Structures are given as C-alpha cells and as structure tokens.
Automatic annotation (TrEMBL):
Signal peptide: none annotated. The keyword Repeat does not apply. Residues 2-234 form the ABC transporter domain. This is ATPase component of Mn/Zn ABC-type transporter. It holds the Pfam family ABC_tran.
Amino acid sequence: MLEIQQLAVNYRGVRALEQIDFRIEPGELVGLIGPNGAGKSTLLKAMLGLIPTARGTIKYCTCPLCQNLERVAYVPQRSQVDWDYPITAQNVVMMARTRQLGWLRRPGAAAKAIVNGALDRVGMLDFKDRRIGELSGGQQQRVFLARALAQQADLFLFDEPFTGIDKKTEAVMLEVFAELRTAGKILLVSTHEWGKSLSQLDRILLLNQSLIADGSPAQVMTPANLQQAYGVSFHQRGSRDPGADLFC
C-alpha cells in the first residue's frame, strides 16, 4: 500500500503543496488531476525524493518510499527528456535493468529477453535499433512505457503520459495500465486530459496545492469540485451521472 500523510512541499521558496493525505491499494489505477501549477509533478517528484518535503510522510509497504525506490518505475513528462541524446530505443529500455545488473556488467540473455519482451508488448520491437530522437512522440512514449515494464516494479508513477501522443499509443497505454492493475500493481497517473482515459480510472485525486477531492471519476469530476480546482464555472447538460459529460 502507498500512503501519504500530512504532506507539505516547498518549491523555490513557495509552498507548492499543503496537507496532502491519501492512500492507494494494490490493484488501483488512480488519476492525479488539476490545472497547470497545481503541484501534480511536484507531488510525484517529492514522492521520489527529487524534491525535499517540508512536512509529512510518504510510505510504501509501511516503510519510507525512499527506501523502496527499486520497486518504483517513473515515467517523466516528455518535456523533461533530452530526445537528442544518441541512444537507441533498446538501450533506453535496457537502462531499467541497470540496478539489477550493476553499471559494469554487460546484459545477458535474461535481461535482453525482458527488454525485448517489453518492447514487443508496446509494439516497438521492430524499432529497437532506432535512435530515440528519430521516433514520433507516441513511439517515444511507448519506449518509455516499455522501460517501466522492464523494470518489473510494483509502483508506477506516470507524469502526463497522454500529452502529445496518437490514438494508437493511447490505446496501448490504457491496455497496459489495465494489465498492471490486474496484476496487483499500484498506478498513479498525472494527467490534464479529460477524454477516454478518465473513464478507465478507479479513482481520481483532484489537486490544486491541496487535495480538493478523492473518489471515483463520477464523484470527483463535479461542477463544484472543478470550479474549486480551476477557478471557473463548469456546467453539465442534464447528465444522469455526475461527471458523465466530461468523458465524451
């Protein structure tokens, strides 16, 4: 179980997050929703220890998450990746096996089988020798998804994975997310996309510096909650279920 209690984070001298409390059980796919500047990426980075926390605890399996990072796979925003770096798709995914292999050991048959299997699962095995910068945005994202799979983690953190991708990549990602959920993994996905992907989520955490709502998509994506998060009015058109119009 992932559990965050009383979390507060300062970023560049400003309080970016305050009073964050939630828990995620194995087998849950949870979305992290909020406007730009709400603290979604800050929360993920604080969980990984990339940004110091001002207060609170972040635990996984009752231990500090920072002591269990080998069980965490993280896919950052595409804007944070140097796509000009001269590395092939296969070697990007092989980086996921570095912790197990060590920096000085060459990958053996078992590691190569895991990497190629991950690339095959996302439809990128035929592109394994292609430099990452030569791929389309969707293909690049699938390579990073393959890297997360090759890590064989238990907790998956995705930062804006649906931004700038094609429909095929979106479908592949949603299929893989469903498989990981069925396998009992924990998935936390930051997104500002309000399309089909939201309806696939078990829960939504609506965030704007503090946690505004936590529940099913229908419970969270209401006009009142969205107005509080985004500061503008949202109106529904006679929906039978709260938030249904947002999934069109």
